[in-house]
Amino acid sequence: MAQELGIYNKYGLDVVFQHKPPQRKLISVLMDKNADFVTDFLSSGIKMRSGGMKIVNIGQISQRSALVFVALKSSGIKRLEDINGNKVGIWMVDFQEIPKALLEKHKIKAEIIPVVSGIELFLHRGIDVIAVMWYNEYHELLSSGINEDEITTFFFKDYNLDIPEDGIYCLQETYEKNPEMCRNFARASIEGWQAAFRNKKRALEIIHKYCRENHIPYNNAHQSWMLNRMEELIMIPGEEHILGFLSPKVYLDTAKKLKFTGVIKTIPDYNEFYKDVLNSNTSPGKDKKTGGKEENVQK
User: Fold this and answer.
1) Which fold has domain 67-159?
2) Helix or strand or coil: residue 200?
3) Degrees, nearest 5: CA angle 164-255-21
4) How far apart (Å, rounded) are the C-alpha atoms in residues 67 and 83?
5) For position 38, what pLDDT does the model report?
6) Diameter over CA atoms, the chain
């Protein structure tokens, strides 16, 4: 929506979208400087920063967790402890930390099976449990013919792992060299989401257009489900939830959980990790104001 409605252009940005192959980590695209901005999970961002990668979060889009473990009731899995000894499919590229943390936290010993794409392995009973996103693969399971009363669900938010997911990241040097560009990109992206939620019919038309251009199957019911669920994850009412803002409390809670489960050894400083460009009109010392269009910006 931000691209199609000219919102990026309004902010003086020429944006090109890239879609990485499923086997490649998003952060690696950023570190190789093949993109100026990427979206990634908060847990992944903290892990990378703790590991020494100089990246910063400039907009926490998702405000709550959409992760859920799903199992068929016919497998005998009705409680979290029942996962012990079973095969668990986890997406291994960009957000494996939190599913593993849930298993570790509850001392569950399971055989981890890497999942690169799709839910077919679960549908064909190759695995007993699969980690899915509530806004995406969960609906795909229902669309495949599985009824909700046939499955057991374990929403991570119900197990004290309500960790927000998608945020916007860039290299620290990118932020320091051009904070104005970072601020404009984050704000334009947020406006794109707001526009999509205000006009869902138009948003779905645009999604259909891109799917058609890229020869990707389009399912209006599924895309509509995803858009509605994303609205619930992003547009959370209440003063404590500011659109795109990463609160110190949420950050510290997430980092502590990652440290407790051994994902990270040290907790990065909040002010070094997160840059509140969305709610700031001032620039850091190295701010370089720009009056016209930026150079080609890639996401």
Assistant:
1) D-Maltodextrin-Binding Protein; domain 2 (3.40.190)
2) helix
3) 55
4) 16
5) 94
6) 63
